[in-house]
């Protein structure tokens, strides 16, 4: 079954803790993305990667970090420096490098900071 | 900087009425525009893109470069169209989304 898998679906963390969200794709896509979705604010780009071992900051990268060691995987770490981490996080991938092509999304991960 | 604006947070229409979801963009180059849809309990997915000039589920969208708009239209709304709709702009490696419009079709 091809697609994008995000885990966990729900995650709770205490303030001051780092947490890593997993994103795996078996679509053989080169590009991968992390978005944050908040009510009334739409989707905001955190980080994106066009190729293995390379990634770029999006519009709201502060307090987040990523890695792209394998084509299939693009994990996102929400660090303790992120001031408002409670949100819904969406991972996406795209076959196109260059102008934005169709994005395929995962089901999302909801992070709640207690 | 590129920007996508969807002025309506919520749009309520009666079944059978026409629908128009507004989207305006600002971008200095030649834009690539999309509409994405998120139905209840489903993943966000592509509805249509301007380069395809196609009609999906009865929806169409025309790129108007003069007005920098890419409004989504459907002549007769159906209950199953109720969902969250996002306009998006592709530019080089990035895809920028608007804040979304919730379409509510009243039976």
Short description:
The complex is a heterodimer of chains A (114) and B (107). Chain A has 114 residues and is mainly β.
Structural description of this entry:
The complex is a heterodimer of chains A (114) and B (107). With 114 residues, chain A is mostly beta strands. Chain A starts with a strand and ends with a strand. The radius of gyration of chain A is 13 Å and the shape is globular. The N and C termini of chain B lie far apart (41 Å). In chain B, 36% of the residues are buried. The model of chain B has no long low-confidence stretch (mean pLDDT 92). Chains A and B meet through strand 4 and strand 5 of A and strand 5, strand 6, strand 9 and strand 10 of B.
Topology diagram in text:
The complex is a heterodimer of chains A (114) and B (107).
Chain A: E1 4-7, E2 10-13, E3 19-25, E4 31-38, E5 42-51, E6 54-57, E7 64-66, E8 76-78, E9 87-94, E10 104-105, E11 109-113
Parallel strand pairs in A: 2-11
Antiparallel strand pairs in A: 1-3, 3-8, 4-5, 4-9, 5-6, 7-8, 9-10, 9-11
Chain B: E1 3-5, E2 10-14, E3 19-21, E4 24-26, E5 32-38, E6 45-49, E7 60-61, E8 72-74, E9 83-91, E10 94-97, E11 101-106
Parallel strand pairs in B: 2-11
Antiparallel strand pairs in B: 1-4, 3-8, 5-6, 5-9, 7-8, 9-10, 9-11
Supply the number of helical segments of chain A: 0
Which residues of chain B form runs of ≥5 with pLDDT under 50? none
Radius of gyration of chain B, in angstroms, nearest whole number? 13 Å
| Beta-strand share of residues of chain B | over 45%
First-last Cα distance of chain B? 41 Å
State the shape of chain A: globular
What class do helices, strands and sheet pairing of chain B give?
A: mainly beta
Mean pLDDT of chain A: 92
Major beta sheet summary of chain A: 7 strands, mixed
- What's the β-strand tally of chain A? 11
CA(first)-CA(last) distance of chain A: 35 Å
Percent helix among the residues of chain B?
Answer: under 10%
Q: Regarding quaternary structure, how should these chains be classified?
A: heterodimer
Spell the H/E element sequence of chain A.
EEEEEEEEEEE
Main sheet of chain B? 6 strands, mixed
């Amino acid at each position: 079954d091809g697609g994008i898998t995000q885990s966990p679906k729900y995650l709770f963390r205490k303030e001051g803790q780092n947490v890593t969200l997993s994103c795996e794709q078996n679509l053989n896509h080169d590009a991968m993305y992390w978005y944050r979705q908040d009510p009334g604010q739409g989707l905001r780009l955190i980080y994106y990667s066009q190729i293995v071992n390379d990634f770029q900051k999006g519009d709201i990268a502060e307090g987040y970090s990523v890695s792209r060691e394998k084509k299939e995987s693009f994990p996102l770490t929400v660090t303790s420096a992120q001031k408002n981490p409670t949100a819904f996080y969406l991972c996406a991938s795209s076959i196109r490098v260059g102008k934005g092509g169709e994005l395929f999304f995962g089901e999302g991960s909801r992070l709640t900071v207690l | 900087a590129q920007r996508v604006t969807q002025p309506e947070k919520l749009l309520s229409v009666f079944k059978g009425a026409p629908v128009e979801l507004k989207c305006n963009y600002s971008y200095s180059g030649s834009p690539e525009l999309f509409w994405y849809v998120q139905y209840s309990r489903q993943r966000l997915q592509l509805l249509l893109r301007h380069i395809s000039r196609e009609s999906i589920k009865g929806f169409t969208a025309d790129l108007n470069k003069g007005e920098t708009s890419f409004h989504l239209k459907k002549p007769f709304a159906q209950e199953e169209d109720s969902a969250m709709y996002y306009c998006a702009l592709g530019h080089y490696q990035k895809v920028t989304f608007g804040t979304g419009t919730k379409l509510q079709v009243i039976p």
